[in-house]
Write a structure and sequence with these properties.
This is GNAT family N-acetyltransferase. With 173 residues, this protein is α+β, with helices and mostly antiparallel strands. It contains five helices and eight strands; from the N terminus they run βααβββαβαβββα. The longest helix has 14 residues, at 156-169.
């Protein structure tokens, strides 16, 4: 049975989460572990451990913002993939948080196209406006991404409000 166990501060990122985080996301698409740890312990960033039959199945790092949840990083363990865990996790999140937002790479690779299809299959829709993910590392370049939502209006003013809040609260810019 799938469960999401939310860890509360003070906490140390478990080793298996840190390892999967670094494997699943390239350096330019994630914070270093020290910065991630600091945000978790201020209570701004939240960590949900994914457990399938009491076995580690992955994680979700997310932010509860003004009126939506921003899913910043979400990964399923390689050995647990293909079992419907990703879909089940998103359904659990949607049941408790009606408005969800996330970033996904532009559809320039097979993997990015697969991720977009996965989220679209769950009812997410991409905003039709340009979005840049601010750099996680000093001196890094912003990354063009798609901002996808579920339960939010598709209009440009909503996109602008959401992206501005993400820039301020998540990226500090």
């Amino acid at each position: 049975m799938l469960a999401i166990r939310n860890l509360l501060p003070p906490l140390i990122i478990p080793g298996h989460v840190a390892e999967l985080y670094e494997q699943a996301f390239p350096a330019e698409e994630r914070r270093n572990l020290t910065a991630q740890q600091t945000l978790l312990n201020t209570g701004a960033l939240r960590l949900g451990l994914l457990e399938n039959s009491e076995q580690f199945a992955g994680f979700v790092f997310y932010w509860q913002l003004t009126d939506f949840v921003f899913i910043e990083h979400f990964a399923v363990s390689p050995g647990q993939r293909g079992a419907g865990i990703g879909s089940a996790v998103m359904q659990v999140l949607e049941a408790t948080h009606k408005k969800l937002v996330l970033e996904v790479e532009l559809p320039h690779t097979i993997d990015a196209q697969r991720r977009i299809r996965f989220y679209e299959g769950l009812g997410f829709k991409a905003y039709a406006f340009n979005y840049l993910q601010p750099p996680y590392q000093a001196g890094g370049a912003p990354l063009p991404m798609l901002l996808m939502q579920k339960g939010m209006p598709p209009e440009e003013h909503t996109f602008t409000k959401i992206s501005n809040e993400i820039y301020l609260e998540v990226y500090g810019c």
